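Subject: Sanity check before I submit

Could someone independently write out the structure tokens for this chain? I want to compare against mine line by line before I put it in a report. The sequence has 160 residues.
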Amino acid sequence: MLEEYKIMDNFLDPHYAFYMHIQFLHAPHVFENVSSAAFQEEGKRLYSIQQPDKHVLNQVIKFKIETIFRVVIKNINVNIQHKGMDCDFHTDPFDYTFLYMLSPTPKDDSGKFILENKEDISYVHNRLIYFKAQLPHKGLSFSDPYTPRMTVAFRSELPK
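---
Independent answer below. Compare away.
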């Protein structure tokens, strides 16, 4: 049984994690992601990459998550936030979300991931966090205007 939430560092081989960061940093970015209905109504958006569920690098992580945690990944989303693009608290419409931190670790501890009424979790490169998708959560942007905060969200369901 999965815990309510858990933090796991060094989830991938460091060379693979670095390569993945470079590939996603230089992939064409689209300005279309929203974290919540309120976020969308305010006209706020985040960047993403096109068809993240088809990207081979994400398929490797999907396989690893499904194998280790015995879940079924239903949705993959890449979130790319530049300075000032803080998300609103929201929930995800699945059982668990696995959030992989892709960008380099910031020098000033900006870019935190926040589980409402639980914990503020520092952004650390190559960190995986999983949590019950119905826990309100949000990601804060980095303070460095030249480094985007990139995460990959793998939304999953428990097997029936």
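---
OP: Matches mine. For the report I'm noting this point. The mean pLDDT is 88.
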